[in-house]
Design a protein that fits this description.
The chain has 7 helices and 29 strands. It is α/β, with parallel strands linked by helices. It starts with 32 loop residues before the first strand and ends in a 13-residue tail after the last helix.
Length: 529
C-alpha cells in the first residue's frame, strides 16, 4: 500500500504503544512498513486552543496524516516529536493515519541491539510506535522545553525556557519543596535565568532529594502557560587524587557500582507492560546494593528516568549504535548526530544521568574526538565515555575496559579516570522461571549457591584492582534474570528473572556479596597505592 488508507478499515488491530513484534501488540511479527489508523474527537472544552499530537517514540521513520492531510514526518527511533494539527481538524470525528518504515539492521540508522534474526547478544526488533501517543491543548504562545543546570559550588540552578509563539512574554519561576517556597526569579524566554538555591540540599543515591519548580509564562500580568517540573542539585566531575584521576560526585569520591540494563521485556520487547514494572526493576537494583544503572544501547521513556531520579540510581546513558562491522557514510553519520543531540536535549534534566556513552565496542564508531567535543559543547555538565570497551581514541573523560568473566582494570591515565566497564556474564537457568529454552551467558552455573560463590569471587577479585588504584566503577552482568529482557531469550546476564520470584533462587545474597567486598572501597588509601 503506497497511499494512506483514508477512510478504510485495516485488516488487523494493534495495541499501541507496543512494538509490532511484541506479544502485547497483538500482532507479534515483523514488518518493515506499517500503516496505523484510528479516529478521534476533540473535547469541546479545547475550543480556542491549539492542539498538539505528540509521539513518545516511533521506530524508525514516521509520516503522519490527519484527515487526509500530511502534517509532518520524523526520523529517529528513540526521541519524541510532535505536530500542531489544529488546522487539519474538523468539528466531528477526525482520522489519524501513521505510516512507519523500520529497516532494522537492513539499514544503518541507530538501532542498538535490534536484529531481524537475533542470536547471542543481538535481540528482537521493536518496530513502529513503541511509546505513548497523546493529544495536548496549548495556547497560541506556550512553553516547549526547559533546560536546568545545577551548580552546587555557586549554589544556583540555571534555567533556560524555550517556547513557541512568544513575543514580549516573560517567565516567572518559583522553586519549592514540600509546599515551602525556596527561591524565585524573573526573566525572559530564550535567555538564561539564574536562580539562587541557598545551602542546597544535594541529590545523591543515598538521598535523592528533588526540588520542585513552577514556571509561569506571562503576558504582562496575565498567565498564558504554566509548567511544573523538578531538578536535583548534584555535580559529576574528575579530580586528581594522588597519582590518579578519580570520578567525583558532589565533590567527593563515590565508588559507583551498577548493572547493565538492556531495556527488553518478554511480552512488550521495548515497552514495559506497566509503570509499576519499570519502577520494580529499579527498586530491585537498589535492593541488591547497586547505585548505578548503565542503560545499554537503548533510550527509555521519560518515566524510566523519573524513577531513577526519585529512587536515586545513577545512570550511564548509551547512545544506541548503528550497525556493527560497517563504516557509516556521511548521510548515516549526519542522522546519528541528529539523534544523539535529541537524546541529550530530551534527557539532560535528569539528575540521575551523569555520563553519556557515545560508542560501545566499536559498533558503528567514527570521529570519536570530534563527537566528544561536540557533546561537551551541548552539555558540559556531564562526563563523556567516548569508547566503552575498546577501539580507544584517547579522548573523553574515562578509559573503559570490558572483561569477561573476571574483572580487569585498564592502565591508569594521567588525565582520565580508569573504569572497568563490563565484566561477569555468569548465567543460571532456573526451571519454571525462563521464557523459552534458549539462553546466552559467558559461563553457566548449575545452582544458586554456585552462582553466588562465583559472584562473590569476582567481587573479592576487585579488591586487588582497587588496591592498585585502577578501578573507579564496575558494572556487573550477574546472571539470575532469565531472558535478558529479549523475546528471543539469548541473554541471561542481569539481575532478576522475568517472573521475578526466581530472583531469590538465583541471587539469594547479592547484597551480602556487595557488603563483604564492594562496599569496602571507601577505605582504600588511593594516595599510597
Amino acid at each position: 500500500m503506497k497511499c494512506p488508507p483514508v477512510g478504510q478499515l485495516l485488516k488487523e488491530t494493534i495495541l499501541v504503544p507496543f512494538p509490532i513484534e511484541s506479544a502485547l501488540s497483538g500482532i507479534m511479527r515483523y514488518h518493515d512498513r506499517m500503516w496505523y489508523r484510528r479516529t478521534f474527537t476533540i473535547p469541546p472544552e479545547w475550543a480556542g486552543e491549539r492542539v498538539l499530537l505528540n509521539f513518545g517514540a516511533v521506530d524508525w521513520e514516521a509520516t503522519v496524516y490527519v484527515n487526509g492531510h500530511t502534517v509532518g514526518s520524523h526520523r529517529g527511533g528513540y526521541d519524541a516529536f510532535s505536530f500542531d494539527i489544529t488546522d487539519q481538524l474538523n468539528g466531528g470525528a477526525n482520522e489519524l493515519i501513521v505510516n512507519v518504515y523500520d529497516p532494522t539492521n537492513l539499514g544503518n540508522q541507530p538501532m542498538g541491539k535490534q536484529r531481524l534474526y537475533g542470536t547471542g547478544v543481538w535481540y528482537t526488533p521493536a518496530s513502529g510506535i513503541w511509546q505513548t501517543v497523546w493529544l495536548e491543548p496549548v495556547p497560541a504562545a506556550f512553553i516547549t522545553h526547559l533546560q536546568m543546570i545545577p551548580d552546587i559550588d555557586r549554589q544556583t540552578v540555571q534555567l533556560l525556557v524555550s517556547g513557541q509563539g512568544i513575543t514580549t512574554h516573560t517567565i516567572e519561576a518559583r522553586v519549592r519543596h514540600a509546599n515551602a517556597f525556596v527561591a524565585g526569579a524573573l526573566g525572559g524566554v530564550g535567555s538564561p535565568i539564574t536562580i539562587p538555591i541557598p545551602l542546597p540540599h544535594l541529590w545523591s543515591p543515598d538521598d535523592p532529594f528533588l526540588y520542585d519548580i513552577q514556571i509561569d509564562l506571562k503576558s504582562g500580568s496575565t498567565l498564558v502557560d504554566h509548567v511544573d517540573s523538578y531538578f536535583g542539585m548534584r555535580k559529576i566531575s574528575l579530580q586528581r587524587i594522588g597519582d590518579y584521576v578519580r570520578l567525583m560526585f558532589n565533590n567527593q569520591f563515590l565508588f559507583q557500582m551498577g548493572v547493565m540494563a538492556q531495556g527488553y521485556w518478554p511480552d512488550g520487547i521495548y515497552t514495559a507492560p506497566t509503570d509499576e514494572a519499570l519502577r520494580f526493576d529499579l527498586e530491585q537494583a537498589k535492593a541488591l546494593g547497586y547505585n548505578l544503572v548503565r542503560l545499554h544501547m537503548k533510550v527509555e521513556p521519560a518515566r524510566w528516568y523519573y524513577w531513577t531520579d526519585r529512587l536515586g540510581l545513577l545512570v550511564w546513558q548509551d547512545m544506541p549504535a548503528m550497525r556493527d562491522g560497517y563504516v557509516p557514510p556521511d548521510a548515516d553519520r549526519a542522522q546519528f548526530e541528529i539523534e544523539l543531540k535529541e537524546l541529550i536535549n530530551e534527557r539532560r534534566n535528569s539528575p540521575a544521568i551523569i555520563m553519556w556513552i557515545l560508542f560501545n565496542e566499536g559498533w558503528g564508531q567514527y570521529d570519536g574526538v570530534r563527537l566528544t567535543s561536540l557533546v561537551k559543547s551541548w552539555d558540559s555538565s556531564r562526563l563523556v565515555d567516548t569508547a566503552s570497551g575498546w577501539r580507544e581514541e584517547w579522548t573523553g573523560d574515562v578509559v573503559d575496559r570490558h572483561s569477561y568473566v573476571d574483572p580487569e582494570a585498564p592502565k591508569p591515565q594521567i588525565d582520565r579516570a580508569s573504569v572497568t566497564g563490563e565484566f561477569g556474564g555468569i548465567g543460571l537457568k532456573i526451571p519454571g522461571h525462563t521464557w523459552g529454552i534458549v539462553g546466552y551467558a559467558y559461563k553457566w552455573r548449575k545452582s544458586g549457591a554456585e552462582l553466588q560463590g562465583a559472584y562473590l569471587s569476582m567481587f573479592l577479585g576487585l579488591q586487588g584492582l582497587k588496591g592498585h588504584s585502577r578501578l573507579e566503577r564496575r558494572r556487573v552482568h550477574s546472571a539470575c534474570r532469565h531472558g535478558g529482557r529479549t523475546q528471543r531469550l539469548v541473554d541471561l546476564r542481569s539481575s532478576c528473572n522475568e517472573d521475578r520470584p526466581g530472583c531469590a533462587q538465583g541471587c539469594p545474597s547479592a547484597s551480602d556479596c556487595h557488603s563483604r567486598a564492594a562496599h569496602r572501597a571507601p577505605t582504600v588509601d588511593f594516595n599510597s597505592a
